[in-house]
Amino acid sequence: MAEALKVKEQGIRGGGGGGAGGVVTSALGRFGEYPRRWRLFLHEVRVEMRQVNWPTREDVVSTTLVVIVTVTFFALFFAIVDGGLSMLIQRLFKNFSH
To answer: What is the Cα–Cα distance from 11 to 31, expressed in whole angstroms?
Structure first.
């Protein structure tokens, strides 16, 4: 993390050069540091992933079952409500069309 701050500070300090040569050198310098920054990023990702508290298999199975039951319940509920409202609207149109 400290290296990332150093890279950021160097980019801020070194970005004010003048002249065309400074622009090319600056661009090449930034291009050259991409592999180092990429390695640093992957290292930080690896460190963070070690700190993740992964769920157990039982936790995953139980929450999956809860989701399946909940989705099934709401699917049936909305199918019944949709069917009922559809019948009601059809009857209203049928009664008012004559």
So the answer is: 12
Instruction: Give the span between the Cα atoms of 48 and 52, in whole angstroms.
Output: 7
Mark residue 66 as left, alpha or beta (left: phi above 0; alpha: psi -120 to 50; beta: remaining): alpha
CB 26 within 8 A of CB 17: yes
Q: What is the pLDDT of residue 26?
A: 74
The whole model's pTM is what? Answer: 0.50
With beta carbons less than 8 A apart as the criterion, state whether 3 and 41 touch.
no
pLDDT given at position 7: 58
* Residues in the chain with pLDDT values less than 50: 15-18
Nearest to 78 by CA among 67, 68, 86, 88: 86
Query: What is the identity of the amino acid at 31?
Result: F
